Amino acid sequence: MVQYNEAKNIVVKEASAFTTRITTLPLLKSLHRILAEDVFADSDLPCFINSSMDGFAIRYSERKNWEITDEIPAGHFHNVIMDIDKTVRIMTGGKLPEDADTVIPLEDVTEVANNITLREGLRLKKGQFVRHAGEDLLKNSLAVSKNTLLEARHIALLAMCGMAEVKVCTSLKAAVLTTGDELIDIHQFPSNDKVRASNLYTILSALKSLNVETVNLGILQDDKTQIKEAVQSALQSDIDILITTGGVSVGKYDFLKDVFNELGVEILFNKVNIKPGKPFVFGKFQDTKTVKYVFGLPGNPVSSYATFKILVEPFINAVYKQFEPPLIKAILQTDYKKSDKRLHFVRGLLSYEGNTFLVATQGQQSSNNLAGLAQSNCLFMAEEDSEIIKAGNEVSCIRI
């Protein structure tokens, strides 16, 4: 059995050695993908000196009034000779005439016929409301760096750089299967000793939120032959990751660890000193062409989700070269007691009051309490050597 930090380090080290593939996509299809190249500005941004306001362009002086001689709408530039007592009406984004260096906003003047007068009490500043060429980015400077998770704000800049297509990392592909004689699919009504297979939908959804392509392998009975055939088929397919839920503990019908061993999966660790989620398998399957990673998650629904967040998600983030969200330091609002030497990940409700994060335990902490999980927004950590964490102490929280 390994400690949590050791387990996480093993997972991240393996992920860091994973080679991602690259594909080229149209810009509008690259949202939420990982940029696979540095992108540089192909021109100055802005490309030309322009007005940041609707107003009047002038040559700066101490004057208070000017004659309007012309108009320059955005996108319709024509050069105008600027005398010191003359002005041209200009729209936001309009290119300034060569001799103009200052813009007066519309609301700062009174306009009568073809003349404007600066309003009483206002003073001009040379260069005001003028955007200079290259003040945002100079040509050939870095615009968006490699390994950026592309959001709408990045798409905007890539568009300004003329990137109709971009190189992005190919999405990881993960297959998910869940095991257990007690499981039924969600369209069935649970009766007698059956329960709906929530894990399948939880893990598939969590993967999709991380930009991972998913394959639903469904629900398998606790039949070793059937499970072995499904796992073998998955390992021979084009997936990068296989995630299973259930069947990795020490029960009579927990077959997955044996199946992994029999199929040549190298088990890197198979128990973690945490709660929930002690039974957890991480391994890799390597043939002459590819490496595939295997995560065997516990069957209890909360344990399954928690271990995904604390061990599978860091693997995916590391493959995609993404920084993990920082832990949040919060003040515990309720005492938390523990009676073992495991690191506990406790479901909690995180709030922010008076410049301080606060967290309180949320509901009963059993590993099948999905209602309590749904009503939580974090996991806070109760360290191995602690027996009771008193209200008022600081704890580290992971957002969920």
The percent of residues in helical segments reads: 10-25%
| Total of helices | 7
Oligomer: single chain
- For CATH, the homologous superfamily of the largest domain is named as MoaB/Mog-like domain
The averaged pLDDT comes out at 93
* CATH T-level topology of the largest domain: Molybdenum Cofactor Biosythetic Enzyme, Chain A
Q: What is the SS-derived class? A: alpha/beta
**How is the largest sheet built, in terms of strand order?**
7-4-6-5-9-8
Shape: elongated
- From the alpha-carbon coordinates, what is the Rg to the nearest angstrom? 30 Å
Topology, number of strands: 28
**N/C terminus separation:** 26 Å
Instruction: Kindly give the count of domains.
Output: 4
The portion of residues forming beta strands comes to 25-35%
